[in-house]
Structures are given as structure tokens and as C-alpha cells.
Amino acid sequence: MLTNDKLPLIRDKALWMRRTAFTMVHRAQLGHPGGDFSAMDILATLYFGVLNYDPKRPDWADRDRFVMSKGHATGALYSALCAAGYFPEDWLPTYMQPKSLLNGHPNRNYLPGIETNTGPLGHGFPVATGIAIAGQITGAPYRTYVLTGDGEQQEGSNWEAAMVCGHRKLANLTLIIDRNRLQQGAGTEETSGLDPLDDKYRAFGFEVHEVNGHDHAALLATLSAPPGDKPRCVIANTTKGKGVSFMENVASWHHGVPNDAQFEQAMKELV
Amino acid sequence: MAHAAPSAAGFQDCRNIWVSTLEQLAESDLRIVAVVNDSIGSSKLNSFQKKFPDRIINVGIAEQVLVGVGAGLANGGRIPFVSAASCFLTGRALEQVKADIAYAGFNVKLVGQSSGIAYGELGATHHSIEDFAWLRPLTNLTVIVPADAWETAEAVKWAAGHDGPVYLRLSRMPVPDLIIPNRQFRPGHAETVRQGDDLTIIACGTTVHLAAAAADALAADGIAARVLNFSTINPLDETALHEAAATGAIVTVEEASIRGGLGGAVAEFTAAHKPVPVERVGFPGFLPTGSVEWLFREYGLTPEGIEAAARRALARKA
User: Fold this and answer.
1) Which chain A residues are within 8 Å of B70, Cβ to Cβ?
2) B59 — contact with chain A (CB < 8 Å)?
3) From first to last of its 271 residues, what are the pLDDT tens digits of chain A?
4) Which of B69, B81, B139 is most worth mutating to test chain A (most A CB atoms within 10 A of its CB)?
5) Residue B84: which H helix or E strand, with range?
6) Numbered residues of chain A with Cβ closer than 8 Å to any chain B Cβ
7) Nearest CB partner across the interface for B99, out of A117, A161, A164
8) Which CATH number, 3.50.30.30, 2.60.120.10, 3.40.50.970, 1.25.40.10, labels domain A4-269?
9) From the DSSP assignment, how many helices (H) and strands (E) are in chain B?
10) Tell me, what's the ipTM?
11) Which CATH architecture has domain B14-169?
């Protein structure tokens, strides 16, 4: 059932997460804000509309799993986990400081709520596949969601995982692709083109949906729809740097960091 | 002085005991699953597959997802034994072993089959002699190289009960049972195979029985060589290494590259703590094609070759 009463909460949380992530990046003068912001609405929708979890019991066996395969987007992940109650807000300013639990890339041994260590691209989807297989062979009720970047789809390990998902009909798995069409240095299509991504995943045995990755209602409907009989691939069309005018669709904001004036400007826009 | 009986007859392919032990464990622990890369036959898992058809996950010829799926199964509460030819498991999927297993700390058992030069004639692509050097820096990964069938069974049992990542390096090369009274499997501890204080021969896996034979030959000449079965490569048994250095000369023997493996580890340790002569018996780098027996002979992984290395080490002893 569609639960549109969740939309105001998702909207509020997404805004808080954007402001929080940009504050972390500004303070650390490190981070990947472009990819944080393209993924932010997806994470806000998952954590505040879709996932079944309990931050007080991060090891709860039947929790839904979210695997952040684009591990560099820790601004998005940490602000989501903090908003979800996994750790207190006063940890956020330690982001990337020496020995901080808020490592540059997520480590499951540092923070509750992190399902696996990621950072090198193409790792999260195979691990999520294993999580989904565990659920499949035991009949556990949890669902597994994994978010990859779109440039990340160039890693061959994703296609190894896609073959296994299709072969095993892992309907309890949802792959979300943050399709912002930019990778670190240039556009995906001018680097090593991904299109037609939907046809590729259909050919691998997925049920494919394409949504506006900043439309909370569309994301909520697609991500919370009951499983079918195939693994699901959600191509979320997004804008890198979404929400801050000078970052939107600018590749250099992949790991660009704001100066004070840019930070103030962004805070004015993020209201 | 040498005290134990020489290695007994009856060479065994340790893959048989690996799989029978795993099946026994899987009968009582429903969490145990096997993950393979089209390697059911080479891992001898055919009967496991018949007994537990839902608990063997064959991802096809795809080592990155093989290891990633292992990590995910552990996240989902399973105890996966990820079994594949060690050349591909550790080489092709090294970043997955590093990030998904060792760094993430998942309770996954990596089982490298046909390790070392078991695929002798197939050439250097199929040899797995670099794995010690690749895996030894992964501080969170216990690396165990059983020396015979008994130790293989004990290592599999221990791995199943240990909460943490493990790499078991198995061989298809038949080895004799080591005859050692009152054996106890103690991961992280070297096992004394022969007593002696004139020098120490540190061996692992398929070479331990060869080292014991070398020590027996040296004993006939009045030289008392200690032989250690150094079956845990990571973490190192530093107490045993201190005591080995105290004998004043060391020979290392491994079915692996002498660069960065057991010999490298011992050399690192002695250089830091007590420099003594270290002669490393193993392989120098990429190897030519040849049978296992030929390669062992050619590179001195024989009782005679180890004895000669021992005499070289003794000649360098201060």
C-alpha cells in the first residue's frame, strides 16, 4: 500500500541530510558532495519510508539490508544513519578526522548500520547478492537493497553479480543505480557508455523500473512495492550535486569541496 | 635429537578429509554452506552437493562475486566455506579478499584448493605460489596450511567454530600422516615435529614431511635439526620464531614463492629481532611447466635439497 503520509518526513529528512552532509564536507574540506547529493533522496526514501530496521538492534537478523556500494558517498550514508538514530549527531564533526569512526569510506566495524565495507567500486552488489541468497535459502523475510553509482557499473564484478541474481531469481534483492550520468572526470556516455542500461538489466533477468531519483513519491512506490518473481533494478535518474545550484551537473563537484562563501550560499539554498 | 618415528606409509589426498569433515560439520550446523566457482569437482564437493543441494551455491566462473557472495552470506548469518582453486581465489579476487573478507572481518572461510604447484604442468598461471605474500599483510585473516590429513580435518573443524575470516590452503598432492605423539591442533602455534638445537627447519604444508626426512638424514650425521610444522602463516608464532633464532640458523621450506611467503616472514622477523642465517627453500618466481615431482626436485624441495640448505645455513652460523 502506498504510504504517502511518509512523504513530508522523507522531505524533511532529505533536507536535513543535505545540510548535514555539506556541513561535514565543508568542515573536513574532504568528501564527495556531488555523489552525496545525487543519492540523498534515495537514501532518505529508503531510511524513512522503505527499510524495516531498528537502530537499537543493528544485528537484528531479519532487518532489511541496505548496502551502500558507492562507498565514497559517506556524506549521504552517515547523515542518513545519524538521522535514522544509529549514532549521535555529535559524532558528525569528526568526519575524516584522525581515527574517526566516520572513515572516508564506510567500515562496518566502526559504525552500526553499515552492512559491509565498501569504497573500491563494484564490491557492494556482489555482497548484497550473498545477503539475498542467505535470505533465499533460509526463507528469512528481509529484503536487500543495494545502491551503486552509474559509473560504478563499469566494474565487471557488477555483471558477475547480475548473472547470479538473474540465475537465482533473487526477488528479495533490489539494485538501485544512481544514474547521474557523470563519473569522476567526465560523462558516463563519453567514458565507457552504459546505455541502454535498462535493456542490459532486462537481459540479465531483472524487472527494470526507471524513476526520477529525486521524486520521493515515485521512489517510495517503486522501492516499497512487494517483490515480484525476479530481482528488481531501479534506474534512478538523478542530478549530481542536486539541490545546490552551483554543484548541479558539474563533474568537478565529484570530490570538490566548498569554500566558506560557497558553503554559505548552499545553506541559503537548502531550506 | 630426533625422537619421533619417521613419517608412516599411506599417502593421502587431503581433499578427501576436507570434504568428509565439512559434511560432518554441516550435518549438525545448518549455517554451514559451500560457495564454489564451478569448482564442485575439483573441490571434491560432489557428495556435499548430493547431501545438501540447497546449501551449495555455485556462482559460475566468477571469482569476484564468489568472494563477495561469501561475505554477504556471512552477513546473512551463514558460515560460508568458499572453495576454489587457490590461484584464482587469491589472485583474481584479491581485492574482494582484502576488502570484503579481511577488512570487513566477515566470518568467511576461504578454502584454496590445489594450491602451490599442484597444477604443475599447467604452468605459472595455475600455480598458486604467491598467495602467502598476498595474504600475509591482511592482518585480520588467519592463514592455515595443513601438513597432513589429520591437520586438515582439525583445521576445517577449527575454522568452522572460529568467528572470523580464515584462509585454508589445501593441496591435492598426497602427503603422509605425520607421526607426532599427543598431537593437538593449536592455530597460531608451530608444532614441533623433530627436536633439535643445532638449527631449525621451519616448514609448512606439503613440505613438512620432507623437512622431517631431511632432519633424520642430518641426525645420522650427528646434527640435531629442529623441525617445526609452521601451519599458521598468519599470525606468526613469534615465540617459536624467537626460539628458532636461538638455535642460530634457520631453513624455511614452503611450496610457495620465497619472496614474501613463509621464508620472507621468517627473514623479516629475524632481521628485526635476532639476525641469524636464513636459507629459504621454495620457488624463485614464475616456474616452467613440469610435473609436481619434477618441480619439487628441480627446486630442491626434497629431503636432499633441504639437507643441503641446512648445511649451508650451518656453515653461515656464527
Assistant:
1) 130
2) yes
3) 455 799 999 999 999 999 999 999 999 999 999 999 999 999 999 999 999 999 999 999 999 999 999 999 999 999 999 999 999 999 999 999 999 999 999 999 999 999 999 999 999 999 999 999 999 999 999 999 999 999 999 999 999 999 999 999 999 999 999 999 999 889 999 999 999 999 999 999 999 999 999 999 999 999 999 999 999 999 999 999 999 999 999 989 988 999 999 999 999 999 9
4) B69
5) strand B79-85
6) 61, 65, 107-109, 115-120, 122-123, 125-135, 137-138, 140, 156-157, 160-161, 163-164, 167
7) A117
8) 3.40.50.970
9) 12, 12
10) 0.96
11) 3-Layer(aba) Sandwich (3.40)
- CA distances to A26, A264, B194 from A261, rounded to whole Å, are 11, 5, 73
Cell numbers of B209, please? 614431511
d(CA B159, CA B117): 24
Domains B14-169 and B191-316 are alike in CATH topology: yes
User: Under CATH, what is the fold of the domain B191-316?
Assistant: Rossmann fold (3.40.50)
Amino acid in position A126:
P
Best residue in A133, A136, A172 for a mutation probing chain B (most B CBs within 10 Å): A133
Residues in chain A closer than 8 A to B106 (CB atoms): 116
Q: Which of A109, A127, A138 sits opposite B68 (nearest CB)?
A: A127
Q: How many CB atoms lie within 10 A of CB A268?
A: 9
